[in-house]
Write a structure and sequence with these properties.
By secondary structure, this protein is an alpha/beta fold. It contains seven helices and seven strands; from the N terminus they run βααβαβαβααβαββ. The protein starts with a strand and ends with a strand. The protein binds S-adenosylmethionine.
Amino acid sequence: MTLQSIEIPDSINQIEHSPTAIRLMDLASEHIDAFMSDNESVPENFVNCDFRLVDQSLTWMEQTHLLQGRRFCELGSGFGVAAMLASLRGMESVGIEIESDLVDASCDLAETLGLPAKFYCGSFVPRNLSEVFELGREVEHVETHEGEAYQEMGLDLDDFDLFFAFPWPGEEYFFETVFEAGAAVHSLLLTYRGRDGMHLVRKT
Ligand SMILES: C[S@@+](CC[C@H](N)C(=O)[O-])C[C@H]1O[C@@H](n2cnc3c(N)ncnc32)[C@H](O)[C@@H]1O
């Protein structure tokens, strides 16, 4: 198994957003600001990605017919906005997040918006892939103390067509390791890499 890199053109930043996506992103930003000011102990690993770039990447992937199916999973979903943007497009969308406060906040936001995205509290690091799990214990911003979320979801890594994650700098390799070890052949992993934008790989 290998990962094939797929170049995303810089021109995606010209892609327009739908009015519903704009509403989602605006409301999410308001909810995140309120969450940050109400909570003295904001989970230390939570930083949100560039939602606009996620939405533009999803539009571009649909336009270029890169998706093989409609199941989406956000690994470490935080406020779950990427999962909700996918849900807005009719994808069957879930987020896995280890911090229960963030899971509650994403469920509230999805309910406010009437979106069927589902959020599960637990770890995205599968325990049955023991080498991957052991590797995960060494990754600073990936928590492994909680049980995995897959059993509760009734879905495994290899049931999804597209994953999204925002790894901390230097930890991208771990998300690719999880993806390569457990995801289905032909599925895609989209990662947000801060100033370096979006990165897309397909498992071949
Ligand atoms: C950098 S934030 C990204 C949040 C969101 N994906 C976004 O892009 O806005 C990473 C998130 O992963 C969560 N996280 C860390 N380890 C995890 C694990 N093993 N399973 C699930 N979530 C995890 C953190 O609590 C944090 O909310």
